[in-house]
Request: fold
Amino acid sequence: MTGGAGQLGRDLALALAGQVPPGGRRRALYGPEGPVEIPGTEVVTTDHRTLPVEDRAAVLGVVASLRPDVIVHAAAHTDVDGCEADPDRAFLVNALGTRHLAEAAVGRGAHLVYLSTDYVFDGTADRPYREWDTPRPLSVYGASKLAGELECPPGSTIVRTSWVCGFAGANMVKTALRLAAGTGELRFVDDQRGSPTFTADLAAALVTLATDRRPGVFHVTNRGETTWYGFVRAVLAAAGHDPDRVRPVTTGELVPRRPAPRPANSVLDNAALRLSGLPLLPDWEDGLRRLVTALAEKADVE
Reply:
């Protein structure tokens, strides 16, 4: 697995090992007939230090040495505004890096699972985006991740997700909690909609898709949708803070303006999961409560 040091990578490693990630619900996978126990699996995680995906020779060498049956490619250059400022780096990591993993997977006969994003869409649809909708990215980040999708060999699993938050790493839940510890009002946009997704839940679904070697594109998010304004209000409420401190603003009112455009509608329809008979992830409010509780327990211990 690439991206093992990230918030999703850490929870995915735990899920593959049969453990419950912080904020998770069960020690099992999602399956078409309910939870199923995780078979014995040897999990090898890499990060940019141990496996720079932009280095073809390194990728081919590591994959040849490890001889994996499945490669989960979760590493990416995810700084959306940073990608806008440096497109070459975005495409080097997100597109060419995926090409290297794809080449190595084909050579080994391994199944490739690629993590993609809601940013492949332009956000102009008046409904949630299905897996079969035509991507039209607005940003360099979205374009580079779409390019990575196109590098995946036939039969790969491509998982698009959105608004990812987890126990490890930086994310909007932790940002909101940090700001809530201060004073004054908090301003968040109310004209960008999406489905918050929690890594403990996403990891369980990813393990199922990976072990089943399900081909094609899957949208995998927690159920329900909200705006960033609504989401931050919910974070504060879950942590016992006053949600009325949060004030709505429009994207155009943000100061300073962000370099990369964001899609106004990032909501993904998990149609492929639903139509395949695979259970959907829990509601995002449920995932949020579990994550806030796990973070609070960690703070109490420290």
Observations:
- The radius of gyration is 19 Å.
- The CA atoms of residues 179 and 300 lie 19 Å apart.
- The chain has a mean pLDDT of 93.
